[in-house]
Amino acid sequence: MRLYLTEHMDQRRLGRRRFFFFSAIFGLTSIATWFMADLLWRDGISALEVTLLAVFVILFAHIAAGFCTALVGFYVINRGGDSSRITATLAEGEVPLLAKTAIVMPAFNEDVSRVFEGLRVVFRSVQETKQLEHFDFFVLSDSNQPNQWIQEEVAWAELCKQVGGFGKIFYRKRRQSINKKAGNVADFLRRWGRRYRYMIVLDADSIMTGRALVQLVGLMEKNPQIGLIQTAPRIVNGETLFARIQSFASRLYSPLFLAGLNYWQQHEGNFWGHNAVVRVQPFIDHCSLPELPGREPFGGRILSHDFVEAALMRKAGWAVWLAGDIDGSYEEGPPTLIESAKRDRRWCQGNIQHAWLLTTRGFRPASRFHLLLGVMGYVSSPLWLLFMILSTIHVFAVLASPAAAAPGWVTDTTSLFGFDLQVPEALTLFALTMLLIFVPKIVSVVVTLGDRAETEKFGGKARLILSALLETLVSALLAPINMVFHSKFVLFTLLGQGVAWVTQKRGSDDDGTDWREAIITHGGQTLFGLVWGVSAFVLSPAFFWWLSPVLAGLVLAVPLSILLSKAGVGRAARRLGIFLTPEETTPPYELKRLHQNLAECYRHLPPFEPLRADYGLLQAVLDPYVNALHVALLRQRRPSEEAREWFVQLRERLLREGPAKFATKEKMALLMDAESMIWLHRELWSCPAGSLAEWWRLAMRQYNVLTYAPTTALYR
Predict the structure, then answer these.
(1) At residue 489, what are phi and psi to the nearest 5 degrees?
(2) Cβ(196)–Cβ(100) below 8 Å
(3) pLDDT of residue 704
(4) Are strands 276-279 and 226-231 parallel, antiparallel or unpaired?
(5) For the CA atoms of 250, 256, 258, 260, what is the dihedral angle to 10 degrees?
(6) pLDDT in tens, 516-534
(7) Per-residue pLDDT reduced to its tens digit, 389-423
(8) SS3 at position 139
């Protein structure tokens, strides 16, 4: 029997909000389309111009949607906030009785120190709320590297000993990493989900304060019709210039867009995959992900699972809310432009898969719109590239026309893409487009300047304005680079090239991106920009100058990527007060605690270099404590006789030859076999030294030094 639930807002009132929002998008797009069509069709219409107009309409509608979201967000903020927000259902200071909640943190080859020091901070913060009894913590590992696996186990045991976390903090390593993060969480729910009413999902780089976690669970208890509440994580801890610019932009501009999103979506919000609370039972019952027809990249398992899970939750009748005004939700962003592109490559394939689901039976219109925006987030880039290339071809076509022997716009810089800006329609269209792109940023700055205390947190009025101007300049240079990146990703997806699941680099180092990596990654973009620019200049100097902002980003891609990747440059900007955020100027206690803990961890020296590559395996075999811990955490399996013979040969060869010639899969197989690990430990300590590989003899000589070094800080 289908579940129908009472919603927070009267449907007629919500209908009026959505009518206003989508009518504004439609109105702006219609006006721009009318001007564009009038310009294109003055001298007749061609197939090229029809294509130009069609692409223009799609792109302008996408821009208009973002502008209208910011517009209604400004309206909401200007009138003192939205009374129809989920956090308003819980009075200030009110803490209802909480229910059992699992805080889960999936991990895949992450920096172990960062994962467990972050977990320590969250645990301590919850402990300080006096509500720890309601929360259990789970690290769900899919790490496929021996070092990471053993480090995680040791770090878990040490953390539990230090904070009294046994029975509250749990570690689980899957044998088979099926379906990536979504499969990891699903496996947890199948095994332990029914013990908990709620689940809070964190990323490996997430930090949430105890107050925020208690508030989320309290909101769920107060509103039994809600299936999911998504917070808006703030990007923190950036060291490189790229990371600090992203953090500044997100912190400054997001309040407008978050208020606008909540205005029209209300109880039909979206899920971003982490820093959110989920009601476990309906999630288990209704959010099992379907397998798409066909093979990857379009078919197979869904990569971007979060949007789909929110749509399935709404389909079942449960509310999904965005709580953008909850403080204490943080995450870290990619440190460099190249790392950001790697993440976008994975997200691109996942979002394009959503095109299959746009017409799924039973999905709510708001859910379809969320899926469409996810698709457009990447498809818009090749459309922009197509639009500009078609504009270039259009210029060629006009020049080749006998009627255009010397058109004024060819040499006159008062023209844009072949349209004379002295014509009122062309000038209006240009002004309208610039308005939609830049006004949300200007309004965000103005709103922040209206709050003196908030302005000081950004470094003061002058630094805030300067930072916003520099961010706009850098964003303008990065836009064409990301456009080409995303166009390439979409093309690869259409050609059937899937994407591997890779570890996301979250931290930063002083070296940043080197020239070799930058040239390999951005060289094609630079060459494309040079060829395009020379062609445009030969074609029409005026057209070239209008195209120059796009060309500048492409031509400067290599040095720009290197500059933005430098942590030293980022720290210099911070000393000058540029790109400051409130989380830097007035950091919450949890972030200060994390920074201090990690600084202490990273002071320790790495293990002896010849042993470093296989230090995890060394610990698990050599150290009695680590060996016993590792074996105790393994789930016992009975391998076949054939497999048992293979294990016997493998472990004997490991002692005789050392791990250098072993494949990672062979090392992982031995680590997963409890009998082999017990045998290896016993034999290593009982065999004559002459029968062991030189690597093991060296390991035993270094044993005392390595054993008593802080185990959670040995690798970065």
Answers:
(1) -65, -45
(2) yes
(3) 58
(4) antiparallel
(5) -150
(6) 999 999 999 999 999 999 9
(7) 888 887 777 666 655 443 444 444 445 444 444 44
(8) strand
User: Edge-to-edge strand order for the sheet containing 234-235?
Assistant: 207-208, 329-331, 234-235
Could you tell me the two tokens for 195?
């013990």
Q: Are strands 101-107 and 135-141 parallel, antiparallel or unpaired?
A: parallel
The residue assigned the tokens 């790392």 is 339
Asked if 307 and 347 count as a contact pair (C-beta separation under 8 A), the reply is: no
Give yes or no for a contact between 302 and 290, defined as CB atoms under 8 angstroms apart.
yes
Question: How far does the chain reach from its first CA to its final CA, in angstroms?
Answer: 52
Helix (H) or strand (E) holding 277: strand 276-279
The tokens for 193 are 């989900």
Token readout for 153 is: 């186990």
Alpha helices in 408-496 (DSSP H): 408-411, 424-449, 452-457, 461-494
Count the helix, strand and coil residues of the chain and give each as a percent rounded to the nearest 5.
Answer: 65, 10, 30
Residues 477 and 529 sit within 8 Å (Cβ to Cβ)? no
Contact of 633 with 173, CB cutoff 8 Å = yes
What is 193-243 written as a DSSP string? GGG-SEEEE--TT-EE-HHHHHHHHHHHHH-TTEEEEEE-PEE----SHHH
Within 8 A by CB and 6+ apart from 320, the residues are: 226, 227, 228, 229, 230, 267, 268, 269, 270, 271, 310, 313, 314
Token pair 């209704």: residue: 286
CB neighbourhood size of 203 (10 A): 22
Provide the token pair at 579.
């790109």
Alpha-carbon torsion 537, 539, 541, 544, what sign? negative
Query: What H or E segment, with its residue span, contains residue 278?
Result: strand 276-279
Domains of the chain (ranges plus CATH)?
A: 86-360 (3.90.550.10), 609-713 (no CATH)
Nearest to 167 by CA among 136, 139, 190, 143: 136
Q: What is the pLDDT of residue 509?
A: 54
| pLDDT grade for 425, boundaries at 50, 70 and 90 | low
Tell me the two tokens of residue 503.
């570890």
Backbone angles phi and psi of 111, in degrees to 5: -65, 110
pLDDT single digits (tens) 318-369: 999 999 999 999 999 999 999 999 989 888 888 888 888 998 899 999 999 9
Q: Where are the alpha helices (DSSP H) in 557-688?
A: 557-564, 567-575, 582-585, 589-601, 609-612, 615-622, 624-633, 641-657, 664-672, 674-686
Q: φ and ψ at 251, to 5 degrees?
A: -70, -35
Burial 385-405 (b: 16+ CB within 10 A, else e): bebbebbbebbbebbeeeebe
CA angle at 699 for the pair 698 and 703, rounded to the nearest 5°: 120
CA–CA dist 555, 161 (Å, integer)? 54
Task: Tell me the C-alpha distance between 291 and 371, whole Å.
Answer: 17
d(CA 644, CA 676): 9
Mean pLDDT of 286-308: 82
Contact 562, 338 (CB under 8 A): no
